[in-house]
Amino acid sequence: MFPAAFDYRAPTTLGEALDILKERGDDAKVMAGGQSLIPLLKLRFSQPALVVDIGRLPDMADIKRDDGHVRIGALVRHVDVERSKELAKLVPLMVEAVHWIADPLVRNRGTVVGSVCHADPSGDWGSIMLALNAELVAQSKSGQRVIPVDGFFEGPFTTSLRPDEVVTVIRIPLPSGQAGGSYHKLERKVGDFATVAVSVQVELDGRKVKTAGIGLTSVGATNIKAKKAEQSLSGRELTDDVIAEAARLAATEAEPKDDIRGTAAYKKDVVRVFVQRGLKAAFARAQEVKA
Amino acid sequence: MKVTMRVNGAERSGDVEPRVLLVDFLRSNLLLTGTHVGCDTTSCGACTVLLDGDPVKSCTVLAVQVVGREIKTVEGLANGANLAPIQVGFHEEHGLQCGFCTPGMMLVASALLERNPNPSDDEIRWAISGNICRCTGYMNIVKAVKHAAQAQAQAAKAPEHVAVAGGGE
Question: CA nearest A103 in B: which residue?
Fold first, then answer.
């Protein structure tokens, strides 16, 4: 299999990339590591006239802390997250979750930001970023725009990114107090898409929940932020009853379909169980953090 | 488009369309057919090569993406007539049956040993989890990697035995 023919540009500066996108953005696809895009090109589900390879842009492969955020550059690969001591300390949810993404070889090549922008409803990073309340920084010739991940996904493989824009950074707010996260994923084998996955992040204020983030993978047309479940936790102590109620609500927010990986009813129940387990694990981890 | 990259230590170039996959460039343009095409869908790892030392699936990389980079294929493992420790390991422990997955398995394993010279069984299984052996010969593949790890450790202790252990890189 090989893709349909396309023009190829590999800009070496951001300015050059933005010029190309301003001119030909409507017909172009931006490629970072290509681990999601190249399979689609090969299957000819996607046939762009132009592929803009941002793999040669400078200063985009850094994980940096600044001003209450961790900033993940557009060329940070999954394996870089896996090996990051800083992220293990600051956002352990990401480092736990990364082991569930694709397989070790794909992780050597694919990027976090690329995966979020690909907007596959079965993608892992989308729901993790929804749980973490992350924001994307998008650049175009007309300037910079900060886009919350909540609202970014419009449908399968569809986002609110404009054709002339490229995401340069995803930034994750750092918790001010005790926080913990967890990622639960059900997959048939390494490298398969999730049957269901759930990411949970909680920040505590004493024994009570200050904020909770819950993101759902593979149970709808996009990654889903389970807002009703999140709100039900706000200001509450995480008793078994409170956790069970949030899990029940999250299951109602999931919109899975029957497919080869399971029935809709089964997947909803997996959401319920994973939210329950995830909240318990995240709560325990948050309590271990020294305030 | 003209592409130039280092393959197994030598500069190689060719003229390809942007849509040409790295695996096809290696096999068709450079005639390095040791890199296999298995599933062609990023699943099986038969097409594994090392890109700047990291194993990647060359069916899911465009040749134009790796201009100026360093590629290592299975043909680059042996040093002349001396097999690399990982090759000796696969030979000694019967780490292959049909052999189709073997180039990818050996490259993944050599990258693992580079980062982690003494991996546990679990770490080996983790490292090869993106590579499928359809003969299901995983037990012996794990043994082969351990054999190579031991040979490398011995070679490091007694440099004069390098040739006996099958040669270094």
Answer: B130
